[in-house]
Write a structure and sequence with these properties.
Blueprint: E1 5-12, E2 15-22, E3 29-33, H1 44-50, E4 55-59, H2 76-89, E5 95-100, H3 102-113, E6 118-124, H4 133-149, H5 151-162, H6 172-183, H7 187-199, E7 214-219, H8 227-236, E8 240-245, H9 252-255, H10 257-280, H11 284-296
Parallel strand pairs: 3-4, 3-5, 5-6, 6-7, 7-8
Antiparallel strand pairs: 1-2, 2-4
Helix pairs in contact: 1-10, 2-3, 4-5, 4-7, 5-6, 10-11
Bound molecules: D-malate.
The site of D-malate has 6 residues, from loops.
């Protein structure tokens, strides 16, 4: 039996995971994976935009939001195992993934190891490299700093890197919401996740093996994973397209949701609806709409 709504609890991999599940029963499934150290609510705007046409699910990674943390050390592999168990528990054989930053690391690792379970991929503000030594050391220093000075200081230190400088004045409420998400993450989960991120393996060599459609989205002013990192990955995946979001930094889905959602809708319309409309002789207006969207996607290499 399927539960609908925004705060559903499910036992997955021996811990209680909190998730949202909206949209029609038989529709294609899109699972949203949040960045660090946020939670599923960062996707609320995208869930609203897509839930008419797709079954849209967002969940809290262990230790984030109100999902339990469990006792094990965190790793990207453990997060992927949670994702696969989550899909199994919901009886979802195949889905698309949309991951931002850490969510993208998880999505890339999941595709690499379980390619048969995924139909399309949106990778936002993420990259495929492992941490260079300097970044690695910074994460270890941050763990020390959180231990010594607490989460509040970490919020102030990290927030300036998550948004484009020009977002701070117009997006005061969004920035407060993100600060709240970080403050609500326990010191232990922050440290365990930072360690997991510092130990993650590169996935770049495997990118050419990805054959499902991929959309890269990145904020033009993202300083954590700048557009060049998405361009690098886009070059390695034949069936991929790249869109750079204007007026946005690392959290581009929150900073420019209109442009972000338009890209998602165009991409998933191509992935899931093209054949349906062509083969069933759908209405001219629907067909014209899709053709217009295809024309917009001139950078698509081979969908
Ligand atoms: C994120 O947004 O998930 C983080 O910036 C990822 C990272 O620190 O590597």
């Amino acid at each position: 039996m399927r539960y609908f709504g925004n705060n559903i609890k499910l036992l997955v991999n021996n811990l209680v995971v909190s998730y949202t599940d909206n949209g029609p029963d038989e529709a294609p499934v899109i699972i949203f994976i949040h960045g660090f150290p946020l939670n599923k609510t960062m996707w609320d705007n995208q869930v609203d935009a897509l839930k008419e046409d797709y079954r849209v699910i967002s969940y809290n990674i262990r230790g984030h939001g109100d999902s339990e943390a469990g006792n094990e050390e965190f790793s990207i592999e453990l997060f992927v195992s949670d994702l696969l168990h989550f899909m199994d528990a919901l009886k979802i054989d195949k889905s698309s993934l949309c991951g931002l930053s850490m969510g993208g690391y998880i999505a890339l690792n999941a595709i690499e190891n379980h390619p048969g379970r995924f139909e399309a991929l949106v990778l936002s503000d993420t990259h495929c490299i492992a941490d260079p030594p300097k970044v690695n050391q910074k994460r270890l220093d941050t763990i020390e700093s959180i231990r010594e000075f607490g989460v509040e200081k970490y919020v102030d230190d990290s927030i300036v890197h998550l948004f484009a400088p020009k977002s701070f004045t117009p997006l005061k409420k969004t920035i407060l919401d993100v600060k709240e998400m970080i403050l609500n993450t326990s010191e232990q989960s922050l440290s365990k996740t930072l360690l997991a991120l510092s130990l993650r393996k590169a996935t770049c060599n495997k990118l050419p093996e990805i054959t499902i459609p991929v959309l890269f989205i990145v904020g033009e002013d993202d300083e954590i994973t700048p557009p060049e990192t998405s361009e690098f990955m886009h070059e390695k995946i034949k069936n991929s397209t790249l869109h750079i979001i204007s007026h946005a930094g690392h959290l581009c889905n929150l900073e420019n949701p209109g442009e972000f959602n338009e890209q998602l809708m165009t991409f998933f319309a191509l992935v899931y609806k093209k054949h349906e409309i062509v083969h069933t002789g759908g209405s001219t207006s629907a067909f014209t709409q899709i053709m217009n969207r295809m024309n917009m996607l001139l950078t698509f290499k081979s969908i």
